[in-house]
Amino acid sequence: MATRGRHADRRGPTLPGQPDQPVHGRYQDHPDGLPAARADEADLAVIVVDSWQRRGVATALFNAMLPRAAAAGVRVVHADVAPANTAARAAVARLFGPAIRACFHEGLLHYRMRLA
Question: 46, 25 in Cβ contact below 8 A?
Fold first, then answer.
């Protein structure tokens, strides 16, 4: 199915310590390719299979995707994180600074993060 709107599906870096295992990431201006409220904002999500968690995969994906999103004109990314997902919350703080705050929306923490 074709999607509307801007998106990027990129081959990212390799897994830490596993140069033959590429990781893939995606940012999209809105789920299902629908137009975002603003052209310079995008949703950001990473899902890592359980057996690969805590190995730097999500960090590698973020480090690959965020500069590409910024280069494509994205200035703000949004992310929803389960309150119990302390690893994801820590990753957001590492990437955007410990002062980053979220609002609680529909049972999730919603982050709105400005790209440099």
Answer: yes
pLDDT for residue 39: 78
33 phi/psi in degrees, rounded to 5: 75, 10
> Rounded CA gap, 23 and 75, in Å?
24
Q: How many domains does the chain have?
A: 1
Range of the domain at 21: 7-114
Looking at residue 7, what is its pLDDT?
Answer: 42
Does residue 4 contact residue 12 with C-beta atoms inside 8 Å? no
Share of the chain above pLDDT 90, in %: 36
d(CA 77, CA 96): 11
Tell me whether residue 2 is in a domain. Answer: no
